[in-house]
Amino acid sequence: MTRMTERAMSPDEIVALMRADFPSWDQSGVKIEEAEYRACRLRLSYHDRFLRAGGTISGPVMFMLADTALFVAVIASVGPKSLSVTTNMSINFFRKPAPKDLIAECRLLKLGKRLAVGDITLFSDEETEPVAHATGTYSIPA
Amino acid sequence: MTRMTERAMSPDEIVALMRADFPSWDQSGVKIEEAEYRACRLRLSYHDRFLRAGGTISGPVMFMLADTALFVAVIASVGPKSLSVTTNMSINFFRKPAPKDLIAECRLLKLGKRLAVGDITLFSDEETEPVAHATGTYSIPA
Amino acid sequence: MTRMTERAMSPDEIVALMRADFPSWDQSGVKIEEAEYRACRLRLSYHDRFLRAGGTISGPVMFMLADTALFVAVIASVGPKSLSVTTNMSINFFRKPAPKDLIAECRLLKLGKRLAVGDITLFSDEETEPVAHATGTYSIPA
Amino acid sequence: MTRMTERAMSPDEIVALMRADFPSWDQSGVKIEEAEYRACRLRLSYHDRFLRAGGTISGPVMFMLADTALFVAVIASVGPKSLSVTTNMSINFFRKPAPKDLIAECRLLKLGKRLAVGDITLFSDEETEPVAHATGTYSIPA
């Protein structure tokens, strides 16, 4: 029995799926920079609507980006299972991100048949210290 | 030395602060139904833009509601500290919410000078089994 | 179709299972004070070996008690599935517990066929402010 | 202003501190294989007392190892602050570890003056797929 170690969907294929299944995709500001087997990198283009008090990008926006990154890493690995759902996400916020693009780097720590677990590190564009880190679980439908 | 056990801000005062400090508040769909010392209840009025694939309210929308509830419970207890920031939030999603209002019930488990920890249970309107549960920490500025 | 709302095992039955399947049970110091459908209360009898620097009960000891409480609440609800395993546990520590008994109160927030999620609040004996709070998920075998 | 990027304590110095402040250290089975600025690697020597039902190492034992690794990474970076305490730890269990040594690899994601956040990946000795992953926060005393 062979073990698949190549990605199941390319970034373009994933974007097509997101547009079809998530009507708000084009307004989200999210771009898929890379998508591989068990990993991806996303970019969130900065927009003023992401701000909260203090001039910083809000926590829910960072959560959205982390959750999307984990979803993209899962379907890049297992194919177009758009009914995969998050069952748990734990996120730590380290510092207030500047008003600029956010980068999410995701890797899958476990990829089982029913559950995938990954972590996501968020950076402000061109910076090296992360602004947030999340760990999450997706339930993959049969 | 007395220990304060009364709320520091009423729902109306909190709404005024949210409008001033979070420009997107009026578009958020969030209403404060109750706010007491160490507890609150919020309602998110249903809107189609909250949906994701599968006809269910998306995880980031539920995270936003949980995070807002914890913020409201904190400032209801300690006063107008709108620079309080989430340092950690862990959320578990139990079932797909129907396309209707969401209710968030929050209580503070710990209220220290610098840190507050609370949990938030999310329900679909008029249902008794929760759709999600979160636990989070806010860092309170001096 | 009826929905079971009665417990599947009594405290005595659970203790018998713990003794059979977890050889260290009798040395653990844990007692089951109550076990109901979707809830339980445990007591950890204080012992000096639980201490860490600062004269306080160590975090891993509190984790053990929380994890055991969730396990007991699950099997009290679904019967003797001793191969149920924790998939996730998130714990917040609020204050340093005094060197006395710890109480764990657990309730299940979700009880599905394959997954159960619950939260656990830990108290020092006869105190009202919790020392820690945890949320965890158990995977239940078929 | 210079930024310290060298470790504050060597493995031998950390072991001496652990022996002084944590009386159960020598019985814990934990060895410090490496300790650097913002990172460490520990080994837990296998012992039958770590087993739970199913012949696998128990969750609380893995939690203890993860928590210890984060503590070691913190004091390796900031010096002998043995009153540092965990405020939050979230752990995901991926597979049942075989009855053999466990390895913990820890890195600090944030190192502030008051808070440090790190993640810990646990492996069975000589295996490449992790058995568990945790993220935790330590509060560092002034």
Question: Which short descriptors sum up this protein?
Answer:
8 strands; 3 helices; 6-stranded antiparallel sheet; homotetramer; Thiol Ester Dehydrase, Chain A; alpha+beta; about 140 residues; two-stranded antiparallel ribbon
What does the model show?
The structure is a homotetramer of 142-residue chains. The first copy, chain A, is of the alpha+beta class and 142 residues long. Chain A has a single domain, classed as Hotdog Thioesterase (Thiol Ester Dehydrase, Chain A), CATH 3.10.129.10. Helix content of chain A is 25%, strand content 38%. Chain A has helices at residues 11-21, 25-28, 59-78, and strands at 30-36, 39-44, 51-52, 56-57, 85-93, 102-111, 115-124, 132-139. In chain A, the strands form two sheets. A six-stranded antiparallel β-sheet of chain A has the order 1-2-6-7-8-5. A two-stranded antiparallel sheet of chain A has the order 3-4. In chain A, a hairpin with a 3-residue loop joins strand 6 (102-111) and strand 7. The two termini of chain A are 20 Å apart. The model of chain A has no long low-confidence stretch (mean pLDDT 92). Chains in contact: A-B, A-C, A-D, B-C, B-D, C-D. Chain A binds chain B through residues 21-24, 49, 51-54, 59-60, 63-64, 67, 82-83, 85-93, 96, and chain B through 21-24, 49, 51-54, 59-60, 63-64, 67, 82-83, 85-93, 96. Strand 5 of chain A pairs antiparallel with strand 5 of chain B, so a sheet runs across the interface.
